[in-house]
Amino acid sequence: MQDNLNNGIYTIDSHYAREQLAAVFMLVEGNQVALIETANAKSLPYVKAELAKHGLQAQDVKYIFLTHIHLDHAGGAGAYMTEFTQAKLVVHPKGARHMINPAKLEAGVIAVYGEKFVAEMYGKLESIDPERIIVAEDGLEVDLNGRRLICRDTPGHANHHNIIIDCKANVIFSGDIFGVAYPELMVNGAAFAFPATTPVNFDPQKMECSIDLIMSLKPDAVYLTHFGRQTELTRLAYDLKRMVRDYVQIALECVNADDVVSAINLCLQEYMLSEVSKFGIDLSPDKILGVIGMDMQINAQGLVVWLKSNVVNN
Ligand SMILES: [Zn+2]
User: Fold this and answer.
1) What CATH number should be reported for the domain holding residue 27?
2) 40 Cα–ligand 1 center, Å
3) Which of these, 32, 164, 196, 213, could form a disulfide with 173 (CB 3.0-4.6 Å)?
């Protein structure tokens, strides 16, 4: 049985933006289901298809976890909660109120990405009934048909970020705090991972602490939302922490540029092309930037927000 091999964990491609960019994870314990992440509302048919494949129905979904409320993780929450009528939404205390009233969240995302993009990707965000929300304080434990799932507060990428520990499988769903590793950038099965320093709560020290917390829990695997199961955790953790420090150094070196975002973006691109090449990935710069270009633009924006609140510019 496939179930015995993967502990009832299924990685669903949400098809958010492109293939294998953002995952929704499905955990099955007996006839009960937990979902982790919701991508956007357009991802719902892929989740329903996966449920059907296993003979499961909408009412079997008991919990929907969000690692954090950035919209590539939480954009589909309203639509999912409407579809899965028996589910509770499990979300960080700093994210819960934005799920109840998404107007401020929507306005913030429009400010970064523009109205057209937000309308196309997410439609109108639906508010969620507060009675169906479980506020996941650090250490909150959820029981999925006897299977223990524990939320841990893990700031650094966002201040509303939890990881979810699956005690039965001894794996962690890391959202964006353990970096991003796209399948396009793999060599002989080894993943190339890099940090996500998205606006507006990137904090390098907290990011390193959260990476250390994950490693201290000694998981057998970490599931990245972008994208999928990783097992070479010691190497990934080392490289992520090294890159966080390099990103910060790059940001500091660009602090006096006329256009700081563009300057950091260009330096990040150059740095990443060199890292990818050192890792042994044989792709043209255009192809590589086609995969990670948008991430570098967003990372540059996040680093500028961090610079503004942490570095005195004289
Ligand atoms: Zn994020």
Assistant:
1) 3.60.15.10
2) 13
3) 164
For the cut 90, the answer to whether the pLDDT of residue 262 exceeds it is: yes
pLDDT one-digit tens code per residue, 192-231? 999 999 999 999 999 999 999 999 999 999 999 999 999 9
Q: Which two tokens mark 245? A: 């420090």
Locate tokens 């492109």: which residue? Answer: 18
Compute the distance from residue 272 Cα to the ligand 1 centre, in Å.
Answer: 19
Give pTM, 2 decimals. 0.96
Q: Which domain holds residue 43?
A: 2-233
Same domain, 242 and 227: no
Ligand 1 centre distance from Cα of residue 303 (Å): 14
Which of 180, 211, 233 marks a domain boundary? 233
User: 59 — phi, psi (to 5°)?
Assistant: -75, -10
Neighbour tally for 21: CB within 10 Å = 22
Element (H, E) at 78: helix 77-83
Average of per-residue pLDDT across 171-184: 98
Same domain, 60 and 110: yes
CA of 198 to the centre of ligand 1 (A): 6
For the chain, the domain total comes to 2
